[in-house]
């Protein structure tokens, strides 16, 4: 029976806590589909190529002219060949740079859509377990690897059919390709390549949606916690001084806010005048003696005075009485008996003042 209880305690059946999610996110363990990244990159690159196709087309046109007309008369030596290749590489880099930048931007956008902004240096730390051959073999022959293999075959088949269908539609134009000049033929092939690329990218994007759903499910399954893990984490958080400090601060803020809501109900606020403030209320119908409904020191006392002035509550400066009330009773308690007389004199003064102002 004890073994059964231990098994159920260790079985990971509970959803991950916010703290566990934050820790796994710091390690780079997030629900992310690489298929979405691939599909978005391909889609944006091919859309960009529709606009940009003229630039590489003109480049290739001038390149062929340069290679077959100008470079054929060039003296073939080491310096000339190196200069030619350096010039060619720089021109190719300039032409391809915008395409690479679009691919980079598309990858960043796709990643941010899935995991928002994430900086996880722990994910790129070298780990010996990653080069463990035994674990590598287990990953190759795992159920996850089988799922990835099936996905790859499915994508190849569907993308192949989509590309073949588009080519079949434009087969007549392709058969007349040899009759066209270089520039017209290049633009036709570029346009057809773009159509195939965008169609296949959209297909891959549709196929990536189930993969993303599966990745989220698998991620939630991987970060599940046992009941014992949840209990241990709760105990650890309870013992964290920072957590305790934040809770005390929050509790103090809430208590102060409740006190401020009580100050407008007071008959008088007795001050020190700067260090202490005590709000008193007396209703002879329900109270046997005046009651302290709020009290505070320093900043809290300042806020109490401000609230009292805003609500036209009388402020009375009496240093000994203020300190005596602050030390002698808590909020919600009646004033101590030894201070009855002093408090009665203050309330009598307040009531006379209110009658004077009323007349």
Automatic annotation (TrEMBL):
Transmembrane segments: 36-53, 92-120, 152-171, 191-214
One GO location term (cellular component): plasma membrane
Membrane topology per record: Multi-pass membrane protein
Gene3D superfamilies in the record: 6.10.250.2080, secretion proteins EscU
Subcellular location, record wording: Cell membrane
Primary location group: membrane
InterPro entries according to UniProt: FlhB, T3SS_substrate_exporter, T3SS_substrate_exporter_C
SUPFAM superfamilies: EscU C-terminal domain-like
One BP term from GO: bacterial-type flagellum assembly
UniProt keyword terms in alphabetical order: Bacterial flagellum biogenesis, Bacterial flagellum protein export, Cell membrane, Cell projection, Cilium, Flagellum, Membrane, Protein transport, Transmembrane, Transmembrane helix, Transport
Pfam families from the UniProt entry: Bac_export_2
Family note: Belongs to the type III secretion exporter family.
Function: Required for formation of the rod structure in the basal body of the flagellar apparatus. Together with FliI and FliH, may constitute the export apparatus of flagellin.
Record-given protein name: Flagellar biosynthetic protein FlhB
Record organism: Geomicrobium halophilum
Encoding gene (name): flhB
């Amino acid at each position: 029976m004890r073994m059964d209880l231990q098994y159920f305690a260790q079985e990971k059946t509970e959803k991950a806590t916010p703290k566990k999610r934050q820790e796994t996110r710091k390690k780079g363990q997030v629900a992310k589909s690489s298929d979405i990244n691939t599909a978005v990159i391909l889609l944006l690159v091919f859309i960009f190529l529709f606009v940009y196709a003229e630039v590489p087309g003109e480049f290739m046109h001038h390149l062929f002219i340069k290679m077959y007309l100008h470079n054929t008369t060039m003296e073939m030596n080491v310096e000339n060949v190196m200069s030619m290749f350096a010039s060619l590489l720089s021109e190719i880099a300039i032409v391809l740079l915008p395409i690479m930048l679009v691919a980079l931007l598309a990858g960043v956008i796709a990643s941010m859509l899935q995991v928002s902004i994430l900086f996880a240096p722990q994910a790129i730390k070298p780990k010996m377990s990653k080069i463990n051959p035994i674990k590598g073999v287990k990953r190759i022959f795992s159920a996850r690897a089988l799922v990835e293999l099936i996905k790859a075959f499915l994508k190849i088949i569907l993308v192949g059919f989509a590309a073949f269908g588009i080519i079949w539609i434009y087969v007549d134009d392709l058969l007349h390709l040899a009759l066209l000049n270089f520039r017209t033929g290049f633009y036709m092939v570029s346009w057809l390549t773009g159509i195939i690329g965008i169609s296949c990218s959209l297909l891959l994007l549709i196929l990536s949606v189930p993969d993303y759903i599966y990745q989220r499910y698998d991620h939630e399954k991987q970060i599940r916690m046992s009941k014992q893990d949840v209990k241990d984490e709760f105990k650890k958080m309870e013992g964290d001084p920072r957590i305790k400090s934040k809770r005390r601060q929050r509790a103090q803020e809430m208590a102060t806010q409740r006190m401020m809501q009580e100050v407008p109900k007071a008959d008088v606020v007795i001050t020190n005048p700067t260090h202490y403030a005590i709000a008193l209320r007396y209703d002879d119908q329900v109270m046997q003696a005046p009651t302290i409904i709020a009290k505070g020191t320093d900043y809290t006392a300042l806020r109490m005075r401000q609230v009292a002035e805003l609500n036209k509550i009388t402020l009375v400066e009496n240093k000994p009485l203020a300190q005596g009330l602050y030390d002698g009773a808590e909020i919600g308690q009646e004033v101590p008996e030894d201070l009855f007389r002093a408090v009665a004199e203050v309330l009598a003064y307040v009531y006379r003042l209110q009658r004077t102002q009323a007349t």
